[in-house]
Amino acid sequence: MSASAFSGRRVLVTGHTGFKGAWLAAWLSEAGAEVTGYALAPETKPNLWTLLNQSKIRSVIGDLNDRAALDRIIAETDPEFVFHLAAQSLVRRSYRTPVETFATNVLGTVQLLDALRAAPNLRAVVVATSDKAYENVEQVWGYRETDPMGGHDPYSASKGATEIAVAAMRRSYYASDAHPTRIASARAGNVIGGGDWAEDRLVPDIVRGCLSDEGRVVLRYPGAIRPWQHVLEPLRGYMMLAQKLEQDAAFAVGWNFGPERDDERPVLDVAQAVIKALGQGRIDIDTPADTPHEATMLRLDVSQARALLGWRPVLSFDDTVRLTADWYAGWARSTPATELCHAQIAEFETLSMRQV
């Protein structure tokens, strides 16, 4: 896979002001794609999108459920590819705002897919959901794409419902020869990397703690095992999937993207590795008695992506943490975010080519 395959192609990225969306929009633009972003305004200060200052990307601030604005941007952009990353992506926030979470994640996705029916030259849509879309019974083996959707908390349930909605929209409107567009969903989770400042997310909390005056890093669930992966790993998978969708309708299904089994680590390992890389910080364990439910184990089986897409992780756990910590360390030294992202994309592409 080379991002250069999108050079000169019209690409719409929803959620471009978010962490993953900003990385993807920058990567595609750097490869020569004509990128338009559609999303709500960034929530945090700092945030990666603002720091990147991407003048080549057309940025439109809007809500997925503002149908008139959505129709207008699709008509103006005439996209060939759509990467749908816009979402309410925080588990703990979903407990506070369940209606907003379901409205954004489920109804917003349906609004987008319905609006895209009018895009005349659209070839492929990749809808990013989450590993938490699966009905998690905390099994020791990885979930496969054919396992049932579900969710204990509003966020997880909204992602499971989104998967069901995507399948229904695909079968109802995009499964005939009369409509050339192919739609796939992509399930990945526990993505880390430089430029994430979201609330209640592990690495941003670690970095904020390390760089604070106290240097105190508070962990709620130090033993929770997660399939940690660098942000560029699933984004590479999304781009590979979009290219395959343009060629073959058989790829219009759900896909898992996750790390090697040996690189699944508990939260404590991640915190210790980031602190070591940054050279400062100390860990305190604090699990409140009334804290909302969070799963302790969740694994994905990525054998489908390996066998059919030719995708497999490029980075080891150590490399993932190194790149993440190096990004934040560089930012703390006032290195421009554009330089940091450019250098890490280049390194990642070099490593991926060696893998081939």
UniProtKB/TrEMBL annotation:
Family matches, as Gene3D superfamilies: NAD(P)-binding Rossmann-like Domain (3.40.50.720), UDP-galactose 4-epimerase, domain 1 (3.90.25.10)
Record key words, sorted: Lyase
EC number(s) recorded for this UniProt protein: 4.2.1.45
NAD(P)-binding domain: residues covered: 12-322
GO molecular-function terms, A-Z: CDP-glucose 4,6-dehydratase activity
InterPro entries named among the record's database cross-references: CDP_4_6_deHydtase, NAD(P)-bd_dom, NAD(P)-bd_dom_sf
PANTHER family: DTDP-D-GLUCOSE 4,6-DEHYDRATASE-RELATED
Name of the molecule in the record: CDP-glucose 4,6-dehydratase
Naturally occurring in which organism (per UniProt): Ruegeria atlantica
Gene: rfbG
